[in-house]
Amino acid sequence: xxxxxxxxxxxxxxxxxxxxxxxxxxxxxxxxxxxxxxxxxxxxxxxxxxxxxxxxxxxxxxxxxxxxxxxxxxxxxxxxxxxxxxxxxxxxxxxxxxxxxxxxxxxxxxxxxxxxxxxxxxxxxxxxxxxxxxxxxxxxxxxxxxxxxxxxxxxxxxxxxxxxxxxxxxxxxxxxxxxxxxxxxxxxxxxxxxxxxxxxxxxxxxxxxxxxxxxxxxxxxxxxxxxxxxxxxxxxxxxxxxxxxxxxxxxxxxxxxxxxxxxxxxxxxxxxxxxxxxxxxxxxxxxxxxxxxxxxxxxxxxxxxxxx
Length: 308
Hints:
The chain is mainly β.
C-alpha cells in the first residue's frame, strides 16, 4: 500500500451478500469498482447457497460422505428448548421457518418445538432430498409421521403423500427417500403402552365420517388413552361452537385457511393450544387440518398416568 494520505473523504460502508452466501463489508465508490459482479440480495444469496449446498451433499458418493462424517456431525444439536413450555400457546407459519441441517446429508428440518439434544421430544417438518437416507436408529419414545409430499420409505415399505404412520416406543428403522419427500414428524411423545404400529392411507375418501356440525367431516387416525388424532375437513363457511381442550390441542393446516378468534392460519400453519385452552374455530374458505388432542403435557393411559 502507498504511504501517501488521501484527501478524499471516507466512503460509507455497505453490506453485501455474495452468490456463495457470504456477507461482506466493503466500500461502494462511485463509479463502482466491482463492475462485473452482480451483488445479490440477502434472500437471493441464501437461496442460492442453500441450493448449491443441498446439490453438493446429495451428490456425495458413499466414501466421501463417510469421510465428511466429522463435519456433518457439527450439525448435531447439543441442547435446545424451543417452544418447550407445553403450557404456553405457540403459533408458527412453518413456511417461514428456516431449514436446519440434520446429521445426515440431504435431510433437513424445520423445528417447531423441541426439548433436548439430537435425541429430543420434538415436532418438526422434515425434508429428504432425492436419494437421501438416515442411518438405522431406535425411537425410544416413539415416532409419528404424516407424509406431506413425495414418497417416504424404510425397510418395511413405501409411503406416499397422505400416509399416516406410528412407530411405537422401542421401534427402529432405516428411513430413506428415493424421489424426495416432506414430512410432519413428532418424536418422543407416545405413551410406552401404546405399542400398536400403524400405517393409514388418508387418501381413502370412504374413511370420512360426519362431524358434530354441518359442513364438518372427520377421519379418525388414532386413539389411545387421552390422545386422539384425526384429519378434519371444513366446508367453506363452517363454524364450530366454543369448546375447551382439557388436554391441549395441536393443529397443522394442510390446505385452505383455518380461523378462530385468535387469528387466521393459512396452509402450513402450526398451532399448539395448551391444556385448558378455549376457542371458537371456523373456516370461511374451507380447509383440511391434522388435529391431535389430549396429549399435553403428556398422554394419559387408561390408568390415568402419563407416559409420553
